[in-house]
Amino acid sequence: MIEVLNPGTRTTIQDAGRHGYRHMGIPASGAADPLCFALANYMAGNRWDAPALECTMGGLHLKFLEDTTIGLAGAHMWTQINGQNVENFTALPVKKNDILTMSFARDGCRAYIAFARGLRAERFLDSCSTYIPAKLGGLEGRALKSGDRLKTHNRPCEAPRKIPLGFAPALSHHVVLRAYHGPEFEQLTQESKRHLYVSPYITSDKTDRMGARLRGNNVETKVPISMTSSPLLPGTLQVLPNGQPILTLIDAQCTGGYPRVLQVIKADQWLLGQIAPGTQVSFRRCFDDEAFDILKARNSFYSTLIDGFSF
Amino acid sequence: MPFKAPQITAYGDSAVLIDYHSPEFSRQISEHIQSLAAGLREDGVWLETVPAYDSLLCVFDMLQTQQSEAIAKLKTYVKTHKSRNKEGSKIIDIPVVYGGKYGPDFDAMCEALNLTPDALIKAHSEETYLVCMLGFLPGFCFLSEAPPRLHHPRRPVPRTQVAAGSIGIAGWQTGIYGLDSPGGWQIIGRTPLTMFDAKKDIPSLLQAGDRLRFVPSTKEIFS
Questions:
Q1: Which end of chain A, N or C, is surrounded by fewer C-beta atoms within 10 Å?
Q2: Does any domain span residue B85?
């Protein structure tokens, strides 16, 4: 068992998400950065999709009530065990009564802490992912709070594993996302079309798992558009009537009523989970089948390490 | 088909959008979209099918299918699909308290539309509505068109909190909020019914294709 001493800014239990229910209005949720989540599980000796903790921005303190192994990946939060610094992107053995503390996130937004054998959590529609707006999954469908006790499964797992050099992604305060034009892109002014691909945007503090509000050059449509509610996915860039863009993240609502001007490619969507308030976001245009080749290359790289994982 | 063929285009690298670009609400198109989506779900190869009023987003597995294949497949499917809709589904009554603290925009809307409170309630509740789709959040029901004299734009600034069960108007759209959530619709009333309950086998009270009627009620239904 693990006791939560301090949940930090926001910590939830996540897994690979509940897919295939958007027609019921239920977003997939799941780890906002599935790559770092999978790496944390791999290091802890688990299947890549075992339920683990997602700590947003930092501040998480845990006390271990039994010996176990954890895998640590994602944003660098100056993690310590009993006051001793530990390396990010490593597997760590911990003893009963050890205390893990995470400070404020540097270079990224979310850290993943996986526990050997995986966390036990409430299942809903084949997933333990916490979705706070509808109180689904995780622990009572909410963020962790002080005093919560987390249990792990009894099933066997592999020994802790290291990840070879080069597999830990480099995170920074500048995220570059490759994207295709969205359905309403052609309705933008010439100037706005150019701005989208050349000028960087800064993420505002109005950012959560649903979306990130961006600040920068205004993006305007040639004429005001009044849209009926239309489908959305994570990684869709929408423009509000005031010209400021909003990028949907992993908990993206299923439909929205604003023009959809860009769609981030699948292979870059893991980065959406590392966008913190203040992060600079730039978009690069993708052409033709480029995204398919990028995904194939990325998948074949990581699937040599993590069994069954794909972006 | 009584309507023109849809545009079928790539949406990012892993989805395809089928869009009928209907300038106004069309019950036929909405029902056709639901029928298309239900057929695709039976196929079992699509990761998500997200229906809206006049468009449908289909997410495919990039490891199995190329985008050009997915588009071609959907073009053939749309051309050959015969709409099957649930006929004669029963009409569900939704009790509503209009106005007061349950409908914070009710009075302003009466004034803006030049309707007496009774006239607004009568207009909104004498219609039988079709549930066109669910989402944006769990339990939210997008309904068929409100009577034309109730059409009213969204609030200029969305509310940060709208209570679950709230009934709103946005342009020609009317709908029911499933959860406490942010929202920009004009709220005219609220129902005490639980629209979304994760503990039930079928968590949403209403499904796309259901028909419903609003029944004006007194505030005692909340106690």
A1: N
A2: no
Count of the separate structural domains present in chain A:
2
pLDDT band at A225; cut points 50, 70, 90? confident
Are A266 and B198 inside 8 Å of each other by CB?
no
Q: What is chain B's Cα-based Rg?
A: 19
Clarify whether residues B73 and B20 are in a common domain.
Answer: yes
Report the domain count for chain B.
2
* A224 touching chain B per CB within 8 A: no
Q: Which residues of A touch B51 (CB under 8 A)?
A: 23, 231
**pLDDT 10s digits, A238-286:** 998 889 999 999 999 999 889 999 999 999 999 999 999 999 999 999 9
Q: Angle, nearest 10°, between helix axes B117-125 and B106-113?
A: 100
What single-letter DSSP state applies at residue B98?
E
Q: What is the ipTM of this complex?
A: 0.94
Beta bridge partners, B116, equal: none
Strands B48-51 and B173-176, by their bridges, are unpaired
Domain annotation covers residue A208: yes
pLDDT, tens digit (0-9, with 9 covering 90-100), for B155-196: 877 788 999 999 999 989 999 999 998 888 999 999 999 999
Same domain, B96 and B56: no
Taking an 8 Å cut-off on Cβ atoms, the answer to whether B52 and A183 are in contact is no
Q: What's the confidence (pLDDT) of residue B86? A: 64
Closest CA to A230 of A222, A218, A219, A238: A238
Please indicate whether, in this complex, the C-beta atoms of A231 and B10 are within 8 angstroms of each other. no
Tell me whether residues B66 and A182 touch, CB distance under 8 A: no
A183 domain residue, yes or no: yes
**Whole-number Å distance between alpha carbons of A162 and A44:** 9
Say whether pLDDT at A222 is over 90.
yes
A134 close contact with B: CB closer than 8 A: yes
